[in-house]
Design a protein that fits this description.
By secondary structure, the protein is α/β, with parallel strands linked by helices. The protein has seven helices and eleven strands. The strands form two sheets. Strands 5-4-3-2-1-10-11 form a seven-stranded mixed beta sheet, covered by helices on one side. A four-stranded antiparallel beta sheet has the order 6-7-9-8, with helices on one face. The two termini are 15 Å apart.
Amino acid sequence: MKNEDKKLIICDLDGTLTVSKSPIGADIATIIVKLLETKKVAVISGGGYPQFQTQFLSRLPGNVDNLSNLYLLPTSGTRLYVWKGNWSQTYAEDLTTQEKEQILTAMDMALKAAEYEKPQNIFGPIIEDRGSQITFSALGQSAPAEIKYAWDPTRKKREKIKELLERKIPGFDVRIGGATSVDVTRRGINKAYGIRKLEQYLNIESDAIVFIGDALFYGGNDYPARASGVDCIEVRGPEDTLKILQGFIT
């Protein structure tokens, strides 16, 4: 893989560009802006569009000249936003009312079977309807990162919930996301889907695309990206990501 041959760089958000549900750092924001001068850049995450606004867009300088080279794929690639003077949604794989009811019923049963106990202190909704994705967040989306990372460091709690959900709703994709989350979308609507949709939208061949993420291992929420056929680079956190992105600056 030659860096100069890559036309599109796709990055996961939490754990890759920043720690869980935290704003990106100034160094990451600076390198993203620099990349936009010569490359197309996309950010994909299980978080909803409002989370992108808080964690990512709000940290970019106010005078970015090349926002048309930036693409946002919230809720695991089930939506795509592009810049047309403002951020415009080009597609959304929204769940139907019946699908949402089916998922929520299964999630309630799975949480009880997994003996999940709602903490006394929570930081936002435990279950979120993100339109194209239903997300369970054990402590709430706004919980401090250090508390999140301590809740399920081995992923065993969420693996149990995921296993139960997969039994109850086999027609949907169930993924472990972030530090405390479990995401549910339609079958096959995942990060690989989002990458392929963007590939088609931009008419860029897969060998000119690279994906960077922290959870490319089997069962990780970035793992579906491997099925897209693009080159993938696994990182341990924002520090690794910064070094890799610097390598794409020509």
